[in-house]
Amino acid sequence: MPRGDLKALQLARLQDTVARVANVPFYKVAFARLGVGPDSIKSLDDIRRLPFTTKEDLRQQYPLGFLAVPRSAVARYHGSSGTTGKPTFVAYTARDLQMWADLCSRFLVAGGLKPHHTVHVAFGYGLFTGGFGLHYGIERVGAAIVPASSGNTPRQILLIRDLDAEVLISTPSYALQIAEVAREQGLTPSDLPLKYAHFGGEPWTEDMRLEIEAQLGIEAYNNYGLSEVIGPGVSGECHLRDGMHIQEDHFVVECVDPETLEPITDGSYGELVITALTKEAFPLLRYRTRDIAALEGCPCDCGRTSIRMSRIVGRTDDMLIIRGVNVFPSQIEEALLRVEGTAPHYEIVIERPAALDEVTVRVEVRPEIFSDSMREMQILKEKLVREIVSVTGIRARVELVSPQTLQRTPGKAKRVIDLRKA
Ligand code: DLL
């Protein structure tokens, strides 16, 4: 769609959304406080007059204070995992579910999914939006689905092989686990029918993409979303894989300075703030995602006119401030993957034994490199320390651990263990 038409559509949909949420108690109070209402939105820039919505607001309105339709109109509930305390719930009308399937099918098609493909879905089917969200998107494309759900990796490999799946859908970290178990079974990438994968749900780096592609013999695509906004389907890569196309006819994505909340317009990194334009059951205005990324406005060679977002480089709540230096776990991943000899399984432990934070990076050594020679291991360790300093500017302790010792999860990997809060 030409950008002018797209902007006009966004404005009309934004006005409509503001009118629809005006009776949601949280927004009613916020609109009164800010002196805004449905008539205040004359241009897209007026979005800045609207209130932000935060995870904390969702918690305070627990379980369903943000619902904008009667309970009888709800067709499904999902929720976020709630690693800290209670989960947060989100709701969908039947029309929301149709629209969600469309959004997922669009990014899948942009990333090469064809009706003749067989797609193995290793996301959990449950409250998590990954499984069901992608499932109906694939169905909309007309491809065949293997709804494997998460866990039991040997069985996943059996299904992939025996049902000839060409496409894998999972978190990037779980794909590595599938690769690892396949290797243990003596399989090489060419023994697996996989050709493509669509990964999302957790941060990963460009080096991790290369690593997974090599290990599974696939082409891997990135897609992004979050349950509060819809689930997967906010954005995804086209075949050029140069940023994720934001589905702007359904979302307005702003990039703001997380401290001042002022807009960032020059393409540098900031917190993404998302307004859902077409959701009926649970439309949130200016949701502060805590995800840090940059927006790219120049047109993509694929011909799509939407703006694109970079990879998520971190979250405002997982940014580590180590002796005054801001560090994201993804930078540590980048440093580790630059050094030959370590496997892409790591965790970052932060402690504050005295006044200063101390960081220990535990990383697995590749089985073929793992050796009893203290000297060799010491050299590897020193290389890693140097690389971490060069990427992040901080000096971390590196602990090399034997292959297969760090915990594996079938869903999102837990990379950071923060003992300062214990
Ligand atoms: O993870 C939705 C999803 C499922 C997206 C499957 C893509 C594929 P939540 O559980 O609410 O929803 O977690 C959302 O996960 O705020 C990001 O921090 C992170 N995240 C999601 N996709 C990506 C990605 C789903 N491609 C949170 N890169 C978001 C980096 C991602 N982080």
Order of strands across the biggest sheet? Answer: 4-3-5-6-7-8-9-14-13
Mean pLDDT, all residues: 95
Q: In terms of per-residue confidence, which ranges show pLDDT below 50 for 5 or more consecutive residues?
A: none
Instruction: Specify the helix fraction band.
Output: 25-40%
Instruction: Give the names of the bound compounds.
Output: 5'-O-[hydroxy(phenylacetyl)phosphoryl]adenosine
Radius of gyration based on Cα positions: 22 Å
CATH topology of the largest domain: Rossmann fold
What percentage of amino acids are in beta strands? 15-25%
Overall description:
- With 422 residues, this protein is of the alpha/beta class.
- It folds into two domains: 222 residues, ANL, N-terminal domain (Rossmann fold); 102 residues, ANL, C-terminal domain (GMP Synthetase, Chain A, domain 3, 2-Layer Sandwich).
- A nine-stranded mixed β-sheet has the order 4-3-5-6-7-8-9-14-13.
- Strand 6, helix 8 and strand 7 form a beta-alpha-beta unit.
- Helix 4 crosses helix 5, helix 6 crosses helix 7 and helix 8 crosses helix 9.
- The chain binds 5'-O-[hydroxy(phenylacetyl)phosphoryl]adenosine (DLL).
- 5'-O-[hydroxy(phenylacetyl)phosphoryl]adenosine (DLL) binds next to helix 5, strand 7, strand 8 and strand 12.
